Amino acid sequence: MNSLITAAVLLALLGLAYQLGWSKSRRLETAGAKLHSRPSYHGYLTVVWALAPALVILLFWLLFSDRITQSYILSLLPPDVAALTGADLFSAIRRVRDIASGFGVAGETQPWENAAGQSLREFNALTFAIVTAAAAGAGALAMLWARSRIAPRFRARNEFEGVVRVLLIACSGVAILTTAGIIASLLAESIRFFSFISPIDFFFGTSWSPGFSTTGNEAHGEYGMIPLVWGTLMIAAIAMLVSLPIGLMTAVYLSQYAAPRLRDTVKPVIEILAGIPTIVYGFFALVTVGPFFSNVGALIGLDIRATSAFTAGVVMGIMIIPFISSLSDDILRQVPRAMRDGSLGLGATKSETIRQVILPAALPGIVGAFLLAVSRAIGETMIVVLAAGNSPYLRFNPFEPVSTVTVTIVKQLTGDTDFASPQSLVAFALGLTLFVMTLILNVVALQIVRRYREQYE
Amino acid sequence: MTDLSTSETKPETIPMHMTSGSAIIESSELGKGKTVRTPDKENRPVRVKARDVSVFYGPKQALFDVSIDIPAKAVTAFIGPSGCGKSTFLRCLNRMNDTIEGCRVTGQIELDGSDIHDRDLDVVELRARVGMVFQKPNPFPKSIFENVAYGPKIHGLARSKSELEGIVESSLRRASLWEEVKDRLHEPGTGLSGGQQQRLCIARAIAVSPEVILMDEPCSALDPIATAKIEELIDELKQNFTIVIVTHSMQQAARVSQRTAFFHLGNLVEEGPTDTIFTSPKEKRTQDYITGRFG
Ligand SMILES: Nc1ncnc2c1ncn2[C@@H]1O[C@H](COP(=O)(O)OP(=O)(O)O)[C@@H](O)[C@H]1O
Ligand SMILES: [Mg+2]
Predict the structure, then answer these.
(1) Whole-prediction pTM
(2) CA–CA separation, A170 vs A160, rounded Å?
(3) Ligand 2 centroid to A310 CA: how many Å?
(4) CATH number for the domain that contains residue A341
(5) Domain membership of residue A139 as a residue range
(6) Is A54 among the domain residues?
(7) pLDDT tens digit string along B153-179?
(8) Residue A222 parent element (H or E)
(9) Residue B80 CA: which ligand 1 atom is closest?
(10) A interface toward B at CB cutoff 8 Å?
(11) ipTM of the shown complex
(12) pLDDT tens track for A327-372
C-alpha cells in the first residue's frame, strides 16, 4: 500500500516537473525568443533532473538500509543475546524482525522481544519518512534548479541526448555487472572451499567421495574432480559424434539441395527440436532410450546399462542437432555464390563442389558452431541428471553409468546444505571450473566465427 | 530486323574438313528465314551455334530468340547496356543457367555441331569443354597450386603427380602468371592481388583444356594496369581457344575482339566483325549505343 501511494505521488510529481519545464520554455517562446530546443525537451530534462537525485538517495538507502537496521536491532538486544554468534544470533534477529513486521513468530515471545519489535517498527517508520523526505526534497530542489536554467539558448536537446546515452550504458552495465558479480561470488566461495581441500587434490584427484556434511567429523572425504570431468567429456564427445554428422548433413541438404519452399518449412520444424525443454529429453532418455539400448545390447550380447554415458550422450546429441544444423546452414549459405559457380563452371558436380569448395570455405565457421555446441553439451544438466546414472567413478566404458560436473553440483546443493562445509562449497569450485571451460570454448569459437565473417565482408 | 547476312562469306571457300564448315548452310535453314549471322571473312569455323535462344526467369522473359554463330579461335565480344541479357546469354553456352532457381532456356545451342541440351551430352562434360571466368575473381580458398589443379583432378586429367604439376605449370604460364607465383605455389590464392586472382581464375579454366572460354566482364573489378594485362592475355589465348567476352566497355570490345554482338533489352540487335560494328553499324540502336547516346 505504502509503495503504491509512493508510486502514484511520484508519477504526479514527474508530470508536474514536465509541466514546469515545458510551460516555462513555452512562455519564453511565445514571448518571442528563438528557442534552441523544443519545449518538450525542456520538459523531459526537468523530469530527469527531478528524478536523478531522488533515485540516487533511494539507491543508497537500498544498499545500506539492511546494515543500518541490523546494527539498530543489535543495539536493542539484551547483552546475553547479543553475545550469541552464528545461526543463533541470526535467528534472534530474525524473530525481532518478524515481530516488527507483524508476521508473527513461532513459540512464546519474550517481553524483550516484543519491546524490541515495537522499537524496530517505530525506527522503520521514522527512517522511511526521513528517506522519503530527503528524496522528495532533493528532487524538488533539483527540479527548481533545472527550471531556472531554462533559457532560449539552453541546449536541452543535446543534454537530453546525453541522458539517453547514460541510460543505455547503465542498462548494458546491468548485464556486465551481473556477470562480474557471479564470477566474484564463484571465486570467493571457491577460495573458501580451497581452504578445506587443497587445489591439487581437487583438480588432479581421481576419487570422488565427499561424504556427508552432517557427520561433523574432521574427515571431509575425497574431492578429486577427474572422474566428473571425464564423465562430462565422454558424454559431450558421444553427443558430438551423434550431432555433428547428422547436423552437418542436414545443413548441407538444406542449404544446397532443398528447394526454397521445402527449406522454409523444414528448418523451423527442425528448430522445434531446440525448443523442447531438456527435462523432457531427460525423461525420454530415462524411460525410452535407455531401456531400448539396454535391450539392444542384450540382443547382441553387449552389457549396456540403461542409464549410462552412452544413453545420455546420444539423447544430448539429438538435442544438439538443430543447434548445429541451423548454425551450419547459415554459415554454408554465407559462402559466396561465386565460389560455388566457380567450381560448377569447371565441370565439378554438386557434391564435389560441396565437399571440395563449399565445406572447406565454411570450415572455420563450422568449427565455431561445433565449439559452441560442445560448450552447450558440457553445461547441459537435466539430461545427465536423469540418464547418466550418477556414478562418480573413473570408468572408461561408455556403457557404464558415469557422473558429470553438472550432476554433481545439483547433488551437492540439494537436500540439507550447510554453506560452511566443503560438501556444499565444492559446488562453487565445480561451477567455476565449468564456467572457465565453457568460457574458453566460447571465446575461441566466437573468435573463429568472427574471423570467418570478415573473410567474406 | 533486317537480314544481316552479307556476301562477305562464300560457302565454297570454307574448307570441308572443318566440322562446322557446312554449318553456314544449315544455319540458314535453322534460322527459318530469321536473322542468320555468318562467321567473319577470315572463314573461321563456327564453334558455337545458337538458334532462337530465349531465357525466362520465372514468368519474366529476359532473352528473346537470340541466334548467333561464334567462330573458333577468335574473340567475340558481347556489348550492351547493363541488364540487357549479355550474362544471361553467356550462361546459356555452358548451361550455368541450370544452377539458377526458376531459370528456363528454350531454343537450340550447338557446340561443334552437337546439341548441348542433348541427353547424351553430360553437363559436367560440357562445362569442362566450355570454361568460364567470372566478373569478380573467385579463387577457391585453397593454395594457388590447388586452385589450378582442381579441374584436372576432378576430371582425372593427370595420371601422376608430375603430370599434374606439368598441367599446373603450363596453365599458369599460359595465363602469364607463372613468373609471379612460381615461388609461392602453396600459398593461398586469395592472397594474390585482384588482377593476379583473375589470371589465376583464367589459369584454372585453361587447366581443363576447354575449347571455349566464356568471360563475364572479367576486368570490371580490376584497375587499368591489371586490365591491360588481362587484355593482352586474351589476345594470346585466342590462338588456341574460342573466347566469348562480355564487356561494358566499348573500348575493350574494340581492342580485344574480332567480332562484336550488341544486345539491347534482351534482343541481339546486331552482330558482325568488330570494325564494321564500330564504324558502320546497320542498326540505329547500335549507332546510338556506340556513340554514347544511351547506355
Ligand atoms: N538470377 C536471376 N533471376 C531473375 N532475373 C534475373 C537473374 N539474372 C538476371 N536477371 C534479369 O535478366 C535480365 C538480364 O540480366 P543480365 O543477363 O545479368 O544482364 P547483363 O549481364 O547484360 O547486365 C535483367 O533484367 C535481370 O534483371
Ligand atoms: Mg552481366
Answers:
(1) 0.74
(2) 15
(3) 55
(4) 1.10.3720.10
(5) 2-154
(6) yes
(7) 999 999 999 999 999 999 999 999 999
(8) strand A222-223
(9) 22
(10) 259-260, 336, 338-349, 352, 356-357, 360-361, 455
(11) 0.82
(12) 999 999 988 899 999 999 999 999 999 999 999 888 888 988 899 8
